[in-house]
Amino acid sequence: MALRGLWRLSSLLRSVVSVTLRRNISLSAIVFNKARDLDPVQKLFLDQIREYNTKSKAAGGVVEAGPAYQKNLTEEMTKLQRLYGGGDLSSFPQFRFPEAKLEEVTTK
Fold first, then answer.
1. Where is the signal peptide (predicted)?
2. Which residue in 72, 75, 56 sits closest to 64, CA to CA?
């Protein structure tokens, strides 16, 4: 009888401890996420990425690319077109797979 009472008490304590730990872990995760959002280094990094994105969209390509970059880019594109048979290298290729013609085979 005393053993049953002790068993019930221990299971009750386990459930209470389990619920308390789950609540504490959940609350600490929320607090950690809020603290992470306020990290100044992370905020600075994201601001720089956003600034580069807006500059890139305004420039229509690479930001602050000089004439040497453009010259090098055209030379490399010319090399690739010469090596791989021309075509438009700025767009994804279109693949066409025609249906194979199969002949019916009869056995005699």
1. 1-18
2. 56
Q: Which tokens sit at 31?
A: 């607090």
Backbone angles phi, psi at 28, to 5 degrees: -70, -30
Task: For 22-50, give the DSSP string.
Answer: HHHHHHHHHHHHHHHHT-HHHHHHHHHHH
**pTM, to two decimals:** 0.39
Tokens matching residue 16: 């209470």
Per-residue pLDDT of the chain (108 residues; tens, 9 = 90+): 666 766 676 776 677 667 676 766 666 666 666 656 668 888 899 899 999 999 989 888 788 888 898 899 889 988 988 888 777 777 887 889 999 888 888 887
